[in-house]
Amino acid sequence: MDPLSDVFSLLKVKSVLSARFEAADPWGLRFPAYRHVKFAGVIKGTRWVWIEGVTAPAKMEEGDFCLLTDGLPYCFASDPSVELQDGEKVFVSNMGVDGIIRFGRGEVRTISVGGLFEFDGDMSGLLLNFLPPLVHVAADSPDARALSAALELIRAETESVRPGAAVMAGSIANIVLVNILRAHLAASPRSTGWLGALSDPRIGSALRMVHEEIARRWKVDELASKVGMSRTAFIDRFKDLVGLPPVEYLIRWRMTIAREALKTGNDNLSSIAAAVGYASETTFSSTFKRMFGQSPSRYRSEARSKV
Length: 307
Known about the structure:
elongated, Arc Repressor Mutant, subunit A, seven-stranded mixed sheet, AraC family transcriptional regulator, Homeodomain-like_sf, transcription regulation, AraC_lig, alpha+beta, DNA-binding
């Protein structure tokens, strides 16, 4: 798999597509702090979004999406000057039997949807630590075509309660998340951090090679040669973008995969060690303990006891 797919598989992304919101102007809603990531898309009209004390209000047009990543209270409004109400209370008190939230009197000027992504895993920092608190993807941006298609699916799925809605909603939400990240990387090719490294032609290529053959006995010289860089330049560039030297990144990723295998699988230690590139079970165990503070066997035992 490619690096982004690898991380998503370990994060076990839980996606929830929230209710459809239809409103007549004027309106303004404030929502409390949250965990992980939220997104919103505009089906009709316009809306403003901002994070309290962090970002200035940004106008969202029809077809736009946004991603909220820092967990702080945030606001949506027909205009930034409108007095804000408690968003959660408004949603609860105005939700119809069809799951649609209708707010205000008069002509509906705004139709929007949103969702929540929760991550089960310690790798969420790879996605979140270097993202801006508010990612705004305009409908007319070059890399928003897939999001436009997703929005049409969301429009159809939220018009009424339909069989299989929960499965569809989660699948569509995952499509939205991946494509917002893709659009962000395309629009911000110099982004820092692991996500930004994926869009770097050389370091991104090295990351893909490592993830595709995690058990291979990679050498820094070999990776540098494959991407057309000197050893020193490769190490410096890799560390600058990813935040870790190449060997340290490889070790951490191997141990992360091993930890997941210990928690969810039934393979013995030698098989897991071999799968992540260790011929010696002893070396694997000592590396795992150095990184996570306990032996693989103890970690597996404790992880199973919590299930």
